[in-house]
Task: inverse folding
């Protein structure tokens, strides 16, 4: 059975009728910043189909920011033997475009982890390139190291820098809210 896609209006009617539960597969920092009311967090990076609640007469709908990660999670759910997998086409962005309510964090949160990764990696590569030009070509080893790390992250889906940044003091509140 293929993954079923639904639109925001269908999800809203199911939620209002009490016939659906919603699982957010985004990362904790994204969920903390804004979420569909009543959604439960189960990040794709740690997604275990066994943790998805049984349907028990209600539909289980997965969502992310735009629908790509939730489609992946739904496919994993089907592959695990689940009879049905539903995801929100367009994710929370489609939900917001339909002017449906979202819950937002009351406190100011740090930048999302992946933006922090981009800033650190980009800044280090830029600095390494400048230092290689001005001081010594050996600084190219620094840019190569970060390039290899980004390549590894892209190939494996595991980003060591993102893991490290999650434990930084400015990300502590988001980490503890999981």
Result:
């Amino acid at each position: 059975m293929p993954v079923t896609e639904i639109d925001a209006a269908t999800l809203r009617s199911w939620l209002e009728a009490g016939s659906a539960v919603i699982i957010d597969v985004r990362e904790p920092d994204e969920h903390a910043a804004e979420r569909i009311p009543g959604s439960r967090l189960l990040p794709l990076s740690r997604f275990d189909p066994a943790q998805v609640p049984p349907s028990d007469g209600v539909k289980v709908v997965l969502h992310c920011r735009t629908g790509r990660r939730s489609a992946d999670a739904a496919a994993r759910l089907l592959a695990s033997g689940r009879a049905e997998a539903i995801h929100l086409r367009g994710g929370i962005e489609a939900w917001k475009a339909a002017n449906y309510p979202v819950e937002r964090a009351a406190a100011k949160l740090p930048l999302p982890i992946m933006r922090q990764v981009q800033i650190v990696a980009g800044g280090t590569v830029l600095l390494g390139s400048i230092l290689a030009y001005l001081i010594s070509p050996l600084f190219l080893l620094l840019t190569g190291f970060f390039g290899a790390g980004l390549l590894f992250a892209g190939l494996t889906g595991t980003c060591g820098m993102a893991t490290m940044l999650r434990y930084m003091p400015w990300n502590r509140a988001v980490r503890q809210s999981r």
About this structure: The chain has two domains: 4-104, 113-176. The mean pLDDT is 88.
